[in-house]
Task: inverse folding
């Protein structure tokens, strides 16, 4: 992720309020830029359609029941070091394991509350958000879905964020949580 670009967003916008009020397509475009690629209308529609498809095949079931049906194991850990940095969660395929970093999710929730000045969601936990995100990755890998072009893993991230928003019926794009966490970190440097 382009940290300098993200820091410029904190200066350009009234963060996080502008992000909560921003149209999804605009916010997803900023996310794509942060990941290092441009998002045009066609690519946005492709990513959004994939997220809607995964939501539809999930038959509007709860994430807990979907995880159970697929036989996915949830492991909770306190520090998951992947590629030299700490992750909130990640999926291990084909073992069907979602690893959740409980301490990191707790810090994410604290940062979000501090930066946003309020609790982000009363209806869903940060753990459920992380599990839903990884479930989306599981479906992509299970179905061997190919996006084509460069940056496929980065595009998969956006699909997962869009899926979480839709499936958990959230009124915000959950990349905002990552940004709250980063903003809190940079304020404490």
Result:
């Amino acid at each position: 992720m382009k940290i300098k670009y993200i820091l410029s967003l904190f200066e350009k916008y009234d963060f996080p309020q502008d992000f909560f009020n921003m149209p999804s397509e605009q916010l997803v475009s900023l996310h794509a830029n942060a990941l290092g690629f441009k998002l045009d209308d066609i690519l946005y529609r492709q990513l959004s359609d994939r997220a809607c498809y995964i939501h539809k095949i999930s038959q509007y079931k709860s994430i807990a029941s979907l995880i159970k049906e697929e036989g996915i194991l949830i492991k909770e850990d306190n520090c998951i070091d992947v590629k030299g940095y700490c992750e909130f969660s990640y999926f291990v395929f084909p073992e069907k394991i979602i690893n959740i970093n409980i301490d990191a999710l707790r810090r994410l929730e604290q940062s979000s509350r501090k930066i946003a000045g309020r609790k982000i969601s009363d209806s869903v936990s940060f753990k459920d958000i992380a599990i839903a995100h990884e479930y989306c990755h599981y479906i992509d890998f299970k179905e061997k879905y190919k996006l084509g072009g460069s940056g496929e893993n980065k595009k998969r991230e956006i699909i997962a964020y869009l899926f979480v928003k839709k499936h958990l019926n959230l009124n915000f794009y959950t990349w905002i949580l990552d940004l709250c966490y980063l903003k809190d970190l940079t304020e404490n440097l």
